[in-house]
Design goal:
Largest interface: A-B, 29 and 29 residues
CATH architecture of the largest domain in chain A: Up-down Bundle
Low-confidence stretches of chain A: none
Mean pLDDT of chain A: 93
Number of domains of chain A: 2
Strand content of chain A: 5-15%
Number of strands of chain A: 8
Strand order of the largest sheet of chain A: 1-8-5-4-2-3
CATH class of the largest domain in chain A: Mainly Alpha
Oligomer: homodimer
Largest sheet of chain A: 6 strands, parallel
Structural class of chain A: alpha/beta
Amino acid sequence: MASSNIRYGEGVTREIGMDLQNMGARNVCLMTDRNLSVLPPVKTVLESLAQHGVNHKVYDEVRVEPTDASFKEAIAFARKDSFDVYVAVGGGSVIDTCKAANLYASHPEAEFLDFVNAPIGKGKPVTGVLKPLIAVPTTAGTGSETTGVAIFDFEELKAKTGIASRAIKPTLGMVDPLHTLHMPERVAANSGFDVLCHSLESYTALPYNMRKPCPPNPINRPAYQGSNPISDVWSRHALNVVAKYIKRAVRDPEDLEARSSMHLASVFAGIGFGNAGVHLCHGMSYPIAGNVKTYRAKGYNVDHPVVPHGLSVVLTSPAVFNFTAPMCPERHLEAAEILGADVSRVKREDAGPLLADTLRQFLYDLQVENGLSAVGYTKDDVPDLVKGTIPQERVTKLSPREHTEEDLTHLFEASLKLY
Amino acid sequence: MASSNIRYGEGVTREIGMDLQNMGARNVCLMTDRNLSVLPPVKTVLESLAQHGVNHKVYDEVRVEPTDASFKEAIAFARKDSFDVYVAVGGGSVIDTCKAANLYASHPEAEFLDFVNAPIGKGKPVTGVLKPLIAVPTTAGTGSETTGVAIFDFEELKAKTGIASRAIKPTLGMVDPLHTLHMPERVAANSGFDVLCHSLESYTALPYNMRKPCPPNPINRPAYQGSNPISDVWSRHALNVVAKYIKRAVRDPEDLEARSSMHLASVFAGIGFGNAGVHLCHGMSYPIAGNVKTYRAKGYNVDHPVVPHGLSVVLTSPAVFNFTAPMCPERHLEAAEILGADVSRVKREDAGPLLADTLRQFLYDLQVENGLSAVGYTKDDVPDLVKGTIPQERVTKLSPREHTEEDLTHLFEASLKLY
């Protein structure tokens, strides 16, 4: 159970130049995306770098919802120079891309699939030493600043996969609540749903001492190790903060208390799921995002169809937790209660339906699209979505309940409409 | 806000040989104390080392409640060899001694006072690279496996002081609840009180954004940074676990659930106070331990008078929290409620007396000696105790309430008798 270095506070981003100077950085790679490159978070970082005379180059070509191709472009940029520190300013897409760039630039001989999760890639352990990476998250969602995971769309498979190794965990996350004031309403909602599902999935993940296989040698154990007494603390705490603040944070971009609480919740949930893992909502979200046809999410300024990560995750959550509840009804009831349900007279066997209903009401209140059908899928697409979920074993095997392809089919079908 | 690598589970200690093999260790320094050297925790480690062919040397001369002299002996042992990994098997005394040995062996030119906290030592920042240290805690108390702190008695000053740097934080803590079954009843009680005070003090410590001075350069900020949203989660959670399990853990050494819960609570509280810091109970405990006359604690097999650390900390707790409550009454009320008090009709201004009474009852139930007078102090000793507290600024300045020498005098006097 490992955790993360986080510095939190309004305005901490202004200190980054001093940190880089303290580290003796001579050639910094600053990664971000086009939209952010003209917004205050990046400007603040650049001003701090200039003020402390830190030499740097900017890469602002990160793709929102990155792909293998966009990862490779960032890697090529990093490999053709010799950076000694990386700085990622952005959401999960930017931080994940920067992790990959740092990893492959530190392993110049490695081929792209070497470190990608098996069975899609070779899942080789990271042996070299990476450069320090400072992550400055500008969304309150992925928790990528706390984790050793980098996710991308593998385009030829139409599914998301990733790289998971403690070695790519950022050296420091600078969590500055002022940045989240720049999130559009739907970005705040969708990234908040990612936090919601990180909490719920990690809290209900298969317990660490029931996960199989159980490699006798510690070096072979996965980063996602199942729910455990340390991750539980974070997952539950994050869920409480989400329940209290997400609606305010979505509705009022100026509500600094709510937005900064959600920012911290994303860190808390990140530490939780970074240890425990996520399961079915995330496993099923990868083909939902990967098979996108023409859906263009509101509030996202991108040049390609996209189902935002948080939305792709949350749309199956009522069906998923209805399905998993029988394995640990107490935790599902506790989650429903935290999200506002009255559980005083509810039987254990009703934990699933209750949490599902609570989530549906929660999503309805937050004006979430009405299920997978609203983002362009029909019943005919379900076989492809199931097929895209099968290789996501890294996460789906952490589901507390074993499942067949038929179960997955049922879960996708039950998620076509929510209300 | 940094955290720690912890591996938790019954029997995890048996894996240590594999870990050392994975790390390529060629010459391991195993530190422990005489009593432990013949008990199962050390035996288990030695068997695992033998099984995996790990070359090692044993140093079992660690002093319970270490001194500058005993630190120096361990440092000399480490310096005359060239160890590539350190393993500490024991309570806080062993882990702290091993941290110091690793630090000074990695800085062969350093003089002893170089890294000791100012104003007693020079408080120089650690610049070199230390060897990995694996800590295997056998008491549920100090949380030393999670912190960058090493405490010792500075004999000529008759006070405890220490070394504080993130650089000495163990690489990995192996938390094996089976080890805590070997703790005698009073060791379980006193180490549990340390956990209790870590939680209470870190939860009520001065908030991180009110601490002064506030060094503009992050490199100059102290390890103990004041209470903050991350440490709060740990401190409060640890307090809940202590409240639920300490009595069972003390009374029944075979109660694995209670003892292993207290073991985890010590980790949780360690992560909390390792970030936030402790304040008056700890600051005042150092002269209480350092000025010991003839008191010999029950259940401790040592050849010198000793007030065990946890006891020296908890004896002033009723007076201290009565004094600090006006600065953050809500947190003191919350703590009293967690410890079993009915707070439903209590006014904010009564938070201090209520928490003090709750603590007195708690200590009485656990058969704690009746105040400082029961460990050999009279009113005449108070000026020395106050004098010994003054240099403990590293912690006392984290008190939420400013205090004069007169205040300290009053706190010691109020702690002579508890019941």
